[in-house]
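ENTRY TYPE: paired fold submission
RECORD: A
CONTENT: sequence, then C-alpha cells
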Amino acid sequence: MTINERADKAVELKLHGGYNCSQAVTAALADQTDLTEEQLKQVSAGFCAGMGNLEATCGAIIGAGMIAGLKTQGKDTLPIARQIQETFRDRCGAIKCKDLKTITDGKPLCPCEECVRNAVLIYGEIMGLEA
C-alpha cells in the first residue's frame, strides 16, 4: 500500500469509520508495526480533540509519533517525532487542535480530515515510504 493510499484510508476511517484523528492515523499505518489495527485503535483512543480533549497537540500528530516509536523500537525516535511536528506545523499552520480548528473566513485552519491526511503523508515522507 502506498503512502497516498494509507492517507486516503486514514481520511475514510476518520470521516466514516468512527475513528478519532489519532486512531485513524495509527490504523492507516498499522502495517508499520507488529500490532493489529484493533490494538492500535485501543492504544490511541484517548488522544483525540487535542491530547485527550484538552485542545492541545493534534491527535493525528500523536498517532504518527506513536507509529514512529513502534517502527524505531524507541531508538532515536525523538528527532523523527520533532520532524513530524515541525513539518506538520509548516504544512497545516499549527500543531494544537484548538488552533487548527480556529474558524477564519468561515472555515477551520485545517479540518480534521486534512490533519489525518497530512500526518500520514508526513510520516511516509520522513520514513521513506513509497508515494
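RECORD: B
CONTENT: sequence, then C-alpha cells
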Amino acid sequence: MITTQNNQQFTAQDACPCESGKPFKQCCEPLLEGRSNADTASALMRSRFCAFVFQRWDYLSRTALNSDPNEEIQQYSADKIWCSLKILKTKKGSEKDTSGEVEFVAFYQRQQESAPKTLRQHHEHSHFQKIDGLWYFTQGLAMDDIKPDRNGNCPCGSGKKYKKCCAQ
C-alpha cells in the first residue's frame, strides 16, 4: 500500500494515476521502483507524473538529464495534490527514437485551500532524450492553461462531470 501526498491509500491493483488505464503494478510502479525502464518518452512522462503524486523525488532526479532538481521540485510541489494527467500531443519519442516531446496538462489542487478547492493546471511541453537505451527528461516549457471539457469527467478524479464539480 502506498500513500499519496494527501494521505490517500493506494494499492498496486488500483488504476495507475497516470491515467493509462492499466493497473499501477503493471504501469508505473515497476519504473518508480527501478525494476524496469520507460520504453518511450510518453511512458517516462507518465511515470514522472506518478512520482509527483507519490512524492518520489529520487525518481524525478534519477530521470532528469544534467540536473538534480530535487529541492526545487519539492518546493514547487509541496502544497499540491496532483489529481490527473492528460497527454495532449507527442512528437517522436518511440522505442526507436533518441529524442521526443510530450505536451501534457497535469491537474492539481492546493492542499491548504479551503473547500471548495479550485482545480488548477500545469500545462507543459516537455523534451526527452534517450541515452544508452534510457529515456531522460531534459527540459520543460510552461505553456498557457487550457480549459477542461465542461461535459467531460472532472480532472480532480471525483467521477463527476467537470461542470457539476470543480467548474462550479
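NOTES ON RECORD B: The beta strands are 2-3, 9-10, 80-92, 99-110, 120-131, 134-142. The mean pLDDT is 87.
STATUS: closed
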